[in-house]
């Protein structure tokens, strides 16, 4: 069994391999004053990250439903608050829509998410 100190040390080592910065953005809906709504993105946090290509954009099946496959896997520090409706802005230039957050348990060393490059 790993101790808390060992897990903390392993997380610190893992974090050194995150060369980029991601701003996690969450959608907010506000009234447009004319009876409708407008969606905008609110910054939640900025964290270190690593972006890697995931595949060729084919469709696949997730939980019994057909969905577009993710184009990238983004690695974040363990315990990062990110949900499937979020968007990540990496290095202030490239946006990615989160399609899947891979949840791990107590021994999580990093959080990996699947994303689709925003156009």
Describe what you observe in this structure.
The longest helix is centred in the N-terminal third of the chain and has 12 residues, at 4-15. This protein has one helix and eight strands. The termini are far apart. The protein has one helix spanning 4-15; strands at residues 20-31, 37-53, 59-62, 65-68, 72-77, 87-90, 94-102, 110-117. By secondary structure, the protein is mainly beta. The strands form two sheets. Strands 1-2-5-8-7-6 form a six-stranded antiparallel barrel. The chain has a two-stranded antiparallel ribbon with strand order 3-4. The protein has one domain (4-117): Bacteriophage SPP1 head-tail adaptor protein (Thrombin, subunit H, Beta Barrel).
What's the end-to-end separation, in Å?
45 Å
CATH topology: Thrombin, subunit H
The second-level CATH architecture is Beta Barrel
Rg computed from alpha carbons, rounded to a whole number of angstroms: 16 Å
Given the structure, what is the number of helices?
Answer: 1
Which class of secondary structure composition applies to the elements? Answer: mainly beta
- The CATH class assignment is Mainly Beta
Strand order of the largest sheet: 1-2-5-8-7-6
Mean pLDDT figure: 89
CATH-defined superfamily? Bacteriophage SPP1 head-tail adaptor protein
User: What number of domains?
Assistant: 1
Shape: elongated
The fraction of residues assigned to DSSP E strands is over 45%
Largest sheet: 6 strands, antiparallel, barrel
The proportion of residues forming helix, as a percent range, comes to: 10-25%
Number of DSSP strands?
8
Q: Give, in order, the helices and strands.
A: HEEEEEEEE
Would you identify the regions where 5 or more consecutive residues have pLDDT less than 50? Answer: none
């Amino acid at each position: 069994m790993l101790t808390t100190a060992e897990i903390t040390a392993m997380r610190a080592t893992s974090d050194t391999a995150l060369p980029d910065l991601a701003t996690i953005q969450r959608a907010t809906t506000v009234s447009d004053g004319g009876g409708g709504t407008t969606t905008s993105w609110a910054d939640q946090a900025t964290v270190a990250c690593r972006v890697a290509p995931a595949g060729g954009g084919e469709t696949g099946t997730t939980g019994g439903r057909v969905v577009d496959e993710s184009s990238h896997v983004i690695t974040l520090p363990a315990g990062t608050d990110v949900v499937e409706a979020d968007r990540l802005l990496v290095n202030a230039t490239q946006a990615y829509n989160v399609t899947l957050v891979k949840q791990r348990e107590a021994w999580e060393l990093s959080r990996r998410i699947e994303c689709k490059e925003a156009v």
